[in-house]
Amino acid sequence: MTILVSGGAGFIGGNFVLDWLRQGDERVINLDKLTYAGNLDTLRGLNGDNRHVFVHGDIGDRGLVDTLLATHQPRAVINFAAESHVDRSIHGPGDFIQTNVVGTFNLLEAVRGHWDGLPGDEKPAFRFLHVSTDEVYGTLSKDDAPFNELNRYEPNSPYSASKAASDHLVRAWHHTYGLPVLTTNCSNNYGPYHFPEKLIPLVILNALSGKNLPIYGDGQQIRDWLYVRDHCSAIRRVLEAGRVGETYNVGGWNEKPNLDVVHTICAILDELRPKADGTRYRDQIAFVKDRPGHDRRYAIDARKLERELGWKPEETFETGIRKTIEWYLGNQDWVQNVTSGAYREWVGKQYEVQL
Question: pTM (2 decimals)?
Answer without folding.
Answer: 0.93
